[in-house]
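Bumping with the actual sequence this time:
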Amino acid sequence: MMLKAWTRAVLAVCFCLALAGCKANGQHTDEGGEDGEKKAEAAAIPVEVAAASRAAMTAAFQGTANLQAEAEAEVVTKTSGVVLEIAVEEGDSVRKGEVLARLDSDRQRLDLAQSRANLRKLENEFKRQQELFERKLISQDVFERARFDLETQKAAYDIAELQLSYTEIRAPIEGVVSKRMVKVGNLIQINQALFKIDDFDPLEAVVNVPEREMSTLAAGQPVQMLVDAMPGQVFIGTVGRVSPVVDPSSGTFRVVAQFRDPSGGLRSGMFGRVRIVYDQRTDALVVPRAALIGEGSEPEVFVVDNGVVKRTKVKIGYTDGGNVEILEGLTDGQQVVTLGQSALRDGTKVQVIQPQA
């Protein structure tokens, strides 16, 4: 930084000296005539330059997003009762089907026992009716009624068994318990939320991308992400899904990037800066971005040739950090002005001043 500041100071002093020389020549125009004008024209403008060189270039879209779990579930009860036991706490990893809590189940057990007794009674009665029907001692209607009664009771038994299973609150998905909303002794009503479970593998970042980038982004492309909570760490992921439609109100489409973090450092809700890489070139001709003048539809650079600058139009490609890719207009090794362009015109003589390595 001190070296750069020194260079700028040298450029400023040289520029001022050049201007002072021009003024001095102007004051003595009457005395020197055409000789003074020639000296003013011959004054060299101090500039910094850089050579066009080959380097790797990466094309990427950058945006911001909050991480969110790919799958999340709010666990609710399907029956009412008093909480007798809580088996997990916030931060615990759970498997699908694992018991999270148990409710008072006395009434459901009694209903199941009653239903089981009625089922056995009807099964025995149906067997007797079947024997009588085979001996043609009862009518078809009497036999069918006995069979229907047995099937109805089987359904009632299954319902009682299901109601008993509802007293054990189980995890609907695999993941991590992110929130517990119940305590032991609480009276729970049907459809009351008890837990929240998030599946952090993978985590997703949803980025809204301008529609002009729709042809460049696709599923499977590599993604880099930096999160504020862990500065300096780069997390690598991939594009999981790209929406096929554009939101007409915002002119953007959704891109979902997925990240897997075996270390467990990433968490749902973290804010991240996402960089989606959609193309890479290993041998691109590049110059510093500071060399460009008029970065609109027709960018140009000042090329230095034998101490004289020539304003040259260039066609640019990708921009990566402080460098820009040159597709047309320059060749390898050509020197372009990177500092001092404001005082230059086509054909101006320059003095190259470079910072020491």
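The tokens above came from a reply further down the thread. The chain is about 25% helix and 40% strand.
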